[in-house]
């Protein structure tokens, strides 16, 4: 099961709503092998921070470093695959190349790819 986003409004922070949302998802999908999401490190956005995902019980199992082609050009950040096992410990695999395209389902998502941007990929991998 993939968790695309867990967003709680600022004025609602501190009431453990994020943890409640996650627990509801776990109960609703109790037969899922586990739950995957991303965690961002050194990203300018406050959303999907690696530390927040770890607080919710996720563990980082893989990562790669990228930079955005249109926003904060030149600033590198790390995208981590985060995993929370449920019924089995075998973690998922991910296609990093697909993630380089960004997402189109939420304008507020840190990896949002606006339709007005004509490039196929909005993220560029930074290899050592």
List the helices and strands and how they pair.
Elements: H1 17-28, E1 34-41, H2 50-55, E2 59-68, E3 76-85, H3 96-99, E4 123-125
Antiparallel strand pairs: 1-3, 2-3, 2-4
Radius of gyration: 15 Å
Treating each run of at least 4 consecutive H or I residues as one helix, how many helices?
A: 3
User: Could you state the order of secondary-structure elements as H and E?
Assistant: HEHEEHE
Topology, number of strands:
4
Shape: globular
Low-confidence stretches: none
Mean pLDDT: 87
The overall number of domains is 1
Percentage of residues assigned to helices: 10-25%
Report strand %.
15-25%
Q: Strand order, biggest sheet?
A: 1-3-2-4
Model description:
With 128 residues, the protein is α+β, with helices and mostly antiparallel strands. The protein has one domain. The chain has three helices and four strands. A four-stranded antiparallel β-sheet has the order 1-3-2-4. Strand 2 and strand 3 (76-85) form a beta hairpin.
Brief description of this entry?
With 128 residues, the protein is an alpha+beta fold. Helix content is 17%, strand content 24%. It has a four-stranded antiparallel beta sheet with strand order 1-3-2-4.
Key attributes of the depicted protein:
128 residues; alpha+beta; four-stranded antiparallel sheet; 3 helices; 17% helix; globular
